[in-house]
């Protein structure tokens, strides 16, 4: 399996692709090279949860001109497509991003026919309204559906593919409306949104447009000189006017061997731990004051704490001892008279509406023992 991408279809099947390597005698291809070469194509598979292959597509069968159209012919091995993203389109077909072709292909889910190709050599669309004229070495193709009846896709345009890392432009997020004639044949691809980052991502990277119009970017890795990569910001969020809202990057004084991030995705996520909150009584502090410490690791809906107490361990404890707004991972409150009297305590986690999420186990002061 090629580790660039794996997607689940609406039916719950897995979409993936693999390297499809052939050893070819290239003398007769009129490419100025002789002898044998290892040449990499792409094999796409759709696999059910039980492991049954229900669809298979090979670039060798459907993209015969890739030998001449690719920018991936290196001295060691020819990586013709360098596929790096796959997604199920809104109408059930498949979109495949091919970096070394600087091209997106749409594949018929039933027949395997290449319905159209966007960008690169041999592309079927005329690109309009794009001052750059084309995209290069892209990643992270996404199908945006048909807003207002127009088929729309987004990509992360790296703007570079040359082996020496030299580029004439920075990286950007780009969205295209695709236009077809009355027979469904491709005509034009009009750039409708372009979000420039001002940073060059030599490899990797992603772009997603959020429902509020903001753009989220991962800038992959940069390049200082040929074959020497450097860290780029792994998360940037900009609003629709291009104003930067958030930037996250590695502190290279700490992470000397920087971590490479392929994509960054902002999405709703709720963490509800399988375990209850933790509560602990302790006087290990300079003042030797009895304190109740409480936390709930991983709970994203937690907004407030309610501390309840009673003179027996019988639940539920109901007397409210304190309420604390969640501001950090772990909180604590001082327990008055806890050294002399038997008291039982419990920490209750509350959401933003004051509804109870969970309770810690009951803990007791030393005189109760």
UniProtKB/TrEMBL annotation:
InterPro entries reported in the protein's UniProt record: Arylsulfate_ST (IPR053143), ASST-like (IPR039535)
Domain of life where this protein originates: Eukaryota
One Pfam family cited in the UniProt record for this chain: Arylsulfotran_2
Protein name: Uncharacterized protein
Species name: Vitrella brassicaformis (strain CCMP3155)
């Amino acid at each position: 399996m090629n580790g660039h991408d794996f997607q689940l279809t609406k039916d719950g099947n897995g979409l993936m692709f693999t390297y499809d390597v052939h050893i070819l005698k290239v003398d007769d291809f009129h490419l100025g090279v002789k002898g044998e070469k290892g040449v990499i194509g792409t094999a796409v598979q759709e696999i059910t949860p039980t492991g049954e292959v229900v669809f298979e597509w090979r670039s060798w069968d459907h993209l015969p001109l890739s030998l001449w159209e690719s920018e991936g012919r290196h001295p060691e091995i020819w990586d013709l497509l360098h596929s790096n993203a796959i997604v199920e389109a809104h109408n059930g077909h498949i979109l495949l991003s091919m970096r070394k072709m600087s091209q997106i292909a749409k594949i018929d889910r039933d027949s395997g026919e290449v319905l159209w190709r966007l960008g690169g050599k041999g592309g079927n669309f005329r690109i309009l309204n794009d001052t750059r004229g084309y995209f290069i070495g892209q990643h992270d193709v996404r199908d945006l559906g048909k807003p207002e009846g127009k088929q729309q896709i987004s990509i992360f345009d790296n703007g570079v593919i040359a082996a020496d890392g030299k580029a004439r432009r920075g990286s950007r997020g780009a969205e295209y409306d695709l236009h077809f004639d009355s027979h469904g044949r491709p005509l034009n691809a009009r750039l409708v949104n372009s979000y420039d980052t001002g940073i060059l991502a030599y490899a990797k990277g992603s772009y997603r447009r959020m429902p509020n119009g903001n753009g989220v970017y991962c800038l992959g890795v940069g390049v200082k000189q040929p074959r020497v990569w450097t860290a780029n910001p792994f998360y940037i969020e900009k609003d629709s006017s291009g104003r930067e809202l958030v930037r996250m990057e590695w502190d290279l004084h700490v992470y000397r061997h920087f971590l490479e991030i392929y994509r960054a995705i902002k999405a709703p996520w709720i963490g509800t731990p399988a375990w209850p909150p933790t509560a602990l009584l302790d006087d290990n502090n300079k003042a030797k004051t009895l304190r109740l410490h409480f936390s709930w690791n991983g709970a994203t809906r937690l907004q407030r704490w309610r501390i309840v107490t009673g003179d027996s361990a019988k639940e539920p404890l109901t007397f409210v001892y304190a309420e604390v707004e969640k501001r950090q991972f772990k909180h604590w409150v001082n327990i008055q008279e806890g050294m002399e009297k038997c008291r039982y305590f419990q920490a209750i986690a509350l959401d933003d509406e004051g509804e109870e999420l969970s309770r810690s186990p009951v803990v007791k002061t030393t005189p109760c023992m």
